[in-house]
Amino acid sequence: MGERSHGLQSWIDRLNEAELPALAAVVQDLHRMAREDTSSVQQLADVLLRDATLTSRVLKVANSVYYNPSLEPIRTISRAIVLIGFENVRLIGLSVSLIDSLLAGAPREQLPQLLARSFHAAVQARNIAGYLMARSQEEVFIAALLHNIGELAFWGCGDEQADELAALLARPGVDEEAAVREVLGTSFRQLTLGLVRSWNLGELVTLAHGTSVKGDPAVKSVNLGMRISEAALEGWDSPAMTELVGRLAGLLGVTREEAMRQVLASADEAVKVATTFGASRLCHLIPHTDLELLRREREQRQTSLLQPDLAVLQSALQELGLLVSRKANINLVLDALFQGLHQGAGLERVMVAVLADQRSRFSVRRAVGEGTGHWQDGFSLAAQAPGEPNLFSYVLKNREAHWMGVPASYSLNDLVTRGMREWLGQGMFFIAPLMAGTREIGVLYADSRVSGRALRHEQFIAFQRFAQMAGRCLEAMAQK
C-alpha cells in the first residue's frame, strides 16, 4: 500500500513530486507564455519539442479538419503557430498533455466522466466568450478546462485513497463534501486552488472559483460554461438547464430559442473537440443533442437545404457580363449577384452592406436567406469608429476578399467586433470589397449559418468572381 496523503499541502507535494511532474512542467511553461508579452514562436515550439510524443500529437491535432479546414499540411510546430495561431497551439499543447497524463493506463470511471464534463464546459465557455469579448477566448477555454484540475488529478493519481473515496461516494445518501474531506483532509476546490497557485496558472482559473468578480465577462463565461455542462447531465429539458438558457439569452441579448440552439451546437462541437484531441472515448460521456425533436428538426432542415446549381451560377455570371456593357441599374445587378451566390453557389445567407450617411456607417442594401429579414431595417456598423477598427472597413481599405474561420484569416479575428457577432453569429463566412473602379461602395458578405455547414473552396472561388463582376458593373454605371 502506498503512503497516505492527508491535508492540502500533503496532496500538492505528492501530485507535484511523484505523480504529475511532467504535466506540471508543461502546463506551467505553456501558461507562463500567456502572461508574458515577449513570448516568442520559438519559446512555444521549444516547450512542445521537449517531448517527441507531444510534438507529434500537437501536429496531428493542428492538421485536423476542426483546426485546419483548408487542409494545408502542417509539418512543424512553428508552421502550426503561423497558420492556426499562437494561442490555439498553446491550447492544443495543454489539452493534449492533460489527456495523455490523466487517461494513461486504465483510469477510474470518475476520471473520464469529469474530463468529458470539463471539455464540454470549455467549449460552452469559449463560445459564450465569443459573444461577450473580442479576445481571450482561448484563455477562457483553458480556465474552464482546468476548473476542476484538483479533482481530475486526484482521480488520476489517488491510488488506494481514490478507491476508498469511490466506495464512500457509492453509498446511498452520502454527503459528498464530507466524504471528500474525510479521505483527503481537504476539499476538491481547495486542492484545485492549491495546484493553480503551485503551477502558477494565472488569475482567470482562480477568479472563476471566487465570488467577488462576477461582472468580469471571462469569469461569467467560465462559470456559465461549467454550470451548463453539469445541467446537461440532468437532461436538456431539465429545470436547471431551462434556468441557465434563460440566463444565457439575457446575457447575449438573444431569444431563449437562439440561446438553446447555441448551447446544443456547443455540445456537438465539444464532441468534435474531444475527438480532435484524441480523446474519442470521452465522446459518449458528453450529453447527446440528438433528441427526437432535434432529429426531426434536423431532417426537415436537411431536406430543405440549399444545394448549389451550376446552371443557375453560370447563367447569373453571364447576366452580370451583359449588364457591364448595358450599364444597367443597381437593382438588376443585385438580382443577378444574389441569384448567382444564393441559388447558384448554394450560399445560405448573402448580404450587401453599403456606406451610408456621408460614408460614416455600413447599412444593409439587400440581404437574402433565412433570418436575414431584419438586417435591412436594423443593421448598422460604424465605418471607422475611433479606436475600434472593424473587418468591413479593413476589407474595403485593403481591397481583398477573405474566407474567415480558416487558419489563413485567424489574424483578422480581432476585427470582428461584438456588434458584428451579435448580428451575424459565430462561424465561417466570406467577405469581399465592392468597388466601382477606385470608389469604395461597401462589402459583399455570405455564409451558410442556417444549416451550420462548412463553406467550400469552390464556393469561395465563385464568391470572389461574383464580387469582381459586380464591381465591374458598378464601375460601368458610374461612367454613365
Task: State the domain count.
Answer: 2
Provide the gyration radius in Å: 25 Å
- CATH topology of the largest domain, anyone? Hypothetical protein af1432
SS class:
alpha+beta
Q: How many angstroms separate the termini?
A: 91 Å
Proper CATH architecture of the largest domain: Orthogonal Bundle
- Give the full name of the CATH homologous superfamily of the largest domain: Hypothetical protein af1432
Strands, count: 6
Which CATH class of the largest domain applies here? Mainly Alpha
Beta-strand residue percentage: 5-15%
What is the strand arrangement across the widest sheet?
3-2-1-6-5-4
What is the count of DSSP helices, taking H or I runs of 4+ residues? 23
Largest sheet: 6 strands, antiparallel
Mean pLDDT: 84
Helix content: 55-70%
Q: Uncertain spans, ≥5 residues at pLDDT below 50?
A: none
The SSE string, one letter per element, is HHHHHHHHHHHHHHHHHHHEEHEHEHEEH
Principal-axis shape equals: elongated
Domain HDOD: 20-215
Organism: Metapseudomonas furukawaii
Protein name: HDOD domain-containing protein
Pfam families: HDOD
